[in-house]
């Protein structure tokens, strides 16, 4: 029974009238809509870029096939239940976590985003038709639920799962797949915790609200659906009341939420992890001009622990058991739900201009990259002595000892890419795009199975790093299944960016695509088979001045070349990890060609340099098969193949698969090893890391017979101990590692000079005797022919 007294009625009426005014109020913050809309560098609308044929289009089309075939009515079943509306016979809930349990609604949000992105890309009506229908139905549910506030006969039933649901909301505007109560109970006076009891627990209610709101905003941005905007503004008004007035009809209610109450809520494991909820409200503030929405986004500032620590750059992602900040946070923080909080802080910064929000996001990103960053672009995992929840962040600087079977959740990478992109829009530091590219072409591309299905999204959850493990694809109704539907329908979103004044075009990614930049009168077509091939050709249509900034990837080792209309650039020196400016007055038909030779490289884990990965340009390679039973890792010895240019391609034979993917063969100690791109989406056992075994100092086939010792310097010290692992450990770089880090060598004399210098430092530290040092230098000198290119 709802008891709405007169004063409460007046309050509700007032709140509703504010809704009406604010929704039609003019925009009061300048800029374009959506993330980055007020930044100095801004995204294009998704429908301004079309993806061309290639690897990513193949992945996209498989997801589009699924999204298109899926019966959208299934997403409405739970919403209708909450609105007390009937459902058609035989239409089932999607399943997974979208089945009536406490995370329900999140997948509906992801699906809305995926539909609008799928539509933006090629404009097929089917996606818009499905989207419009869903938005209309959700709007109806919202209206029905809110209207119950005026019914005198509603009940306060909280876990209703039936078509007769008629619980009465506390505040107007709520809509979801679950009763409003599952959100409100997180706060005072009940402080619900994570669990599965529908009548008293909660899962991650604000995470869920965010997904639905994001889906509606994306529907508005990508397809101009104004009804979606109307629904999301009402949801935002509801959110404001829930986070200020709170659970006012609850016995024991003591008044508006305080900052302390909010801090207490957000520090709670899972239940309080609000994901990117704070991201949407500043955008709604921009659209409506209603400052309450900016206030709502700030309600999510976790000022008791994480937010303040991030502003101060005090890395507290994992803390010792006796030094846990705040009143009830866990020792280790959850990766996927905390990354998007900083995407939200970026949004607050973009619409309030308050620097501390930017600083928090930038500093947090710095804790993950490089300190917790695996070679495929992921983060998070277990380590010896930690609890066994690999969805959590590992301790700082732990890469080699955090390699886990079920670490590196795919949706964490989805969120890290968003954060890197948003930071780039403000700072234009190419490192963000190097990281974005790594995550996109490896983990994200690799998250989708290379087969078609209209039954399952065939997406990964964890992307295991334990050598010899295989990926699993399914994920209906999970976080990663949701963010995956999004990732594969927005491959065009970061290929190009533009300066706010339209004078510069940033070309960040080499992906076949066409940019239609009507505002500046340019169309730019990029033809490339990247990452299967290492060239790209841009054809410009349109006339006038424009500064085209081409990304020079950090992985370039040699021979990056750019020609304009077949003429090489006069000043041809380029720095990998920067942008190259082509600022000129362009004429229709101008052609820019880029050659960016891929090389075979290794990358070392920062805490254990003999734990390594093979990369081909931007592409991580995985060795196939499980390591032999007596070894944890595949082992490779590679230095004997190197010549003065230091090119690891000499260590492998390469072939091209029927798809055009490179396949390398290495002679391993346990037989030949096949290595192929990480993005190949099948279930073969494979390893992203191998163990480098270089027992002796060799120069080509010449073996000095002297052990290739380690100097044991420069290793990071774990902030939180790893059981049974000495920190910083004695796994430092070897003599040959240090020598070859200086490659390429112009001449054999230069090589010998480097060997002499490194020998000197090893002798000085007592790692070699004087005599051993002399033998090594003699070996290097004598190996002239061996090392000559
Ligand atoms: C809610 O409904 C779903 C099916 O629609 C069912 O699987 C689930 O068990 C129900 N939950 C409760 C608490 O009745
Ligand atoms: C309740 O009824 C009043 C009077 O008809 C109306 O002004 C108000 O908007 C209604 N409130 C809701 C939440 O529907
Ligand atoms: C009581 O609820 C039913 C449906 O739940 C509705 O049809 C009826 O109009 C309500 N009565 C009043 C007085 O609001
Ligand atoms: C949405 O509206 C804008 C401005 O009217 C227009 O430029 C854009 O093409 C429209 N987008 C879609 C997907 O209809
Ligand atoms: C409670 O919050 C609302 C805003 O949602 C505000 O209008 C009201 O003044 C607050 N009440 C108190 C006592 O602060
Ligand atoms: C540490 O080593 C001991 C002795 O080998 C072993 O019993 C224990 O399980 C190890 N601890 C962890 C966390 O691996
Ligand atoms: C870009 O970011 C990287 C990584 O944080 C940093 O090392 C580098 O100094 C930055 N570059 C510039 C130009 O700020
Ligand atoms: C594993 O066994 C093979 C074959 O017996 C042997 O060649 C190899 O050295 C062993 N590896 C290790 C790490 O013991
Ligand atoms: C290993 O690969 C090399 C080419 O890299 C080839 O010549 C050799 O036959 C292969 N060995 C086996 C056992 O397959
Ligand atoms: Zn996930």
Automatic annotation (TrEMBL):
What stretch or stretches form a coiled coil here? none
Asked if the record carries the keyword Signal, the reply is: yes
Name the SUPFAM superfamilies for this protein.
Six-hairpin glycosidases
Q: Where is the signal peptide?
A: 1-23
Q: What highest taxon heads this organism's lineage?
A: Eukaryota
Using the record's annotation, list all stretches that form the Non-reducing end beta-L-arabinofuranosidase-like GH127 catalytic domain: 48-493
Q: Biological process GO annotation list?
A: carbohydrate metabolic process
Q: Which UniProt keywords apply?
A: Signal
Segments forming domain Non-reducing end beta-L-arabinofuranosidase-like GH127 middle: 505-597
**What name does the UniProt record give this protein?**
DUF1680-domain-containing protein
């Amino acid at each position: 029974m709802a008891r709405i007294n007169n004063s409460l009625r007046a309050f509700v009426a007032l709140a509703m009238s504010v809704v009406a005014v604010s929704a039609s109020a003019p925009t009061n913050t300048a800029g374009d809509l959506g993330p980055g809309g007020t930044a100095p560098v801004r995204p294009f609308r998704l429908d301004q870029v079309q993806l061309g044929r290639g690897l990513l289009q193949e992945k996209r089309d498989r997801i589009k096939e699924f999204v298109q075939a899926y019966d959208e009515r299934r997403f409405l079943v739970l919403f209708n239940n909450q609105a007390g509306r009937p459902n058609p016979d035989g239409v089932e809930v999607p399943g997974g976590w979208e089945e009536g349990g406490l995370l329900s609604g999140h997948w509906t949000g992801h699906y809305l985003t995926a539909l609008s992105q799928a539509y933006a890309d090629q404009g097929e009506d089917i996606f818009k038709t499905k989207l419009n229908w869903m938005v209309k139905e959700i709007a109806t549910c919202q209206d029905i639920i809110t209207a119950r506030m005026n019914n005198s006969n509603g009940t306060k039933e909280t876990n209703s799962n039936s078509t007769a649901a008629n619980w009465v909301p506390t505040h107007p505007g709520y809509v979801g797949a679950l009763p409003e109560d599952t959100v409100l109970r997180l706060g005072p006076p009940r402080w619900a915790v994570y669990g599965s009891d529908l009548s008293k627990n909660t899962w991650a209610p604000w995470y869920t609200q965010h997904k639905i709101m994001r889906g509606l905003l994306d529907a508005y941005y990508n397809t101009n659906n104004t009804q979606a905007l109307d629904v999301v503004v009402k949801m935002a008004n509801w959110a404001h009341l829930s986070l200020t007035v709170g659970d006012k009809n609850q016995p024991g209610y003591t008044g508006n939420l305080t900052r302390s109450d909010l801090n207490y809520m957000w520090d709670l494991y899972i239940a309080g992890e609000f994901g990117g909820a704070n991201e949407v409200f500043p955008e709604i503030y921009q659209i409506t001009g209603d400052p309450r929405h900016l206030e709502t986004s700030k309600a999510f500032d976790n000022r008791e622990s994480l937010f303040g620590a991030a502003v101060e750059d005090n890395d507290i992602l994992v803390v010792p058991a006796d030094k846990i900040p705040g009143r009830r946070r866990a020792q280790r923080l959850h990766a996927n739900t905390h990354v998007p909080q900083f995407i939200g802080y970026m949004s607050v910064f973009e619409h309030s201009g308050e620097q501390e929000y930017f600083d928090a996001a930038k500093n947090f990103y710095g804790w993950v990259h490089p300190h917790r960053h695996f070679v495929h672009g992921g983060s998070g995992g277990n380590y010896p002595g930690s609890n066994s929840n690999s969805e959590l962040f590992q301790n700082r600087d732990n890469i080699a000892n955090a390699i886990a079977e079920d670490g590196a959740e795919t949706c964490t990478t989805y969120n890290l890419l968003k954060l890197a992109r948003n930071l780039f829009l403000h700072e234009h530091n190419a490192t963000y795009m190097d990281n974005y590219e790594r995550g996109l072409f490896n983990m994200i591309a690799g998250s989708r199975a290379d087969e078609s299905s209209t039954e399952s999204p065939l997406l990964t959850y964890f992307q295991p790093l334990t050598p010899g493990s295989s990926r699993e694809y399914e994920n209906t109704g999970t976080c990663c299944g949701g963010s995956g539907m999004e990732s594969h329908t927005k491959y065009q979103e970061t290929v190009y960016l533009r300066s706010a004044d339209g004078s510069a075009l940033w070309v960040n990614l080499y992906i076949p695509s066409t940019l239609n930049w009507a505002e500046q009168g340019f169309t730019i077509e990029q033809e490339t088979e990247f990452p299967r091939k290492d060239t790209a050709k841009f054809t410009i249509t349109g006339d006038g001045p424009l500064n085209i900034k081409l990304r020079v990837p950090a992985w370039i080792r040699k021979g990056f070349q750019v020609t304009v209309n077949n003429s090489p650039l006069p000043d041809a020196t380029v720095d990998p990890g920067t942008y190259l400016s082509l600022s000129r007055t362009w004429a229709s038909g101008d052609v820019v060609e880029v050659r960016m030779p891929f090389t075979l490289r290794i990358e070392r884990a920062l805490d254990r340099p003999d734990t390594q990965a093979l990369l081909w340009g931007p592409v991580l390679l995985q060795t196939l098969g499980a390591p032999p039973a007596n070894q944890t890792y595949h082992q490779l010895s590679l230095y004997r193949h190197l010549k003065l240019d230091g090119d690891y391609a000499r260590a492998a034979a390469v072939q091209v698969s029927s798809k055009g993917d490179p396949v390398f063969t290495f002679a391993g100690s346990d037989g030949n090893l096949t290595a192929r791109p990480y993005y190949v989406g099948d279930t073969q056992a494979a390893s992203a890391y191998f163990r480098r075994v270089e027992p002796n100092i060799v120069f080509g086939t010449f073996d000095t017979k002297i052990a290739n010792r380690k100097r044991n310097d420069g290793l990071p010290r774990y902030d939180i101990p790893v059981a049974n692992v000495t920190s910083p450990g004695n796994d430092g770089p070897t003599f040959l590692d240090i020598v070859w880090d200086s490659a390429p060598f112009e001449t054999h004399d230069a090589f010998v000079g480097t060997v002499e210098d490194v020998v000197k430092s090893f002798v000085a530290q007592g790692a070699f005797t004087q005599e051993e040092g002399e033998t090594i230098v003699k070996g290097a000198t004598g190996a002239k022919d061996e090392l000559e290119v």
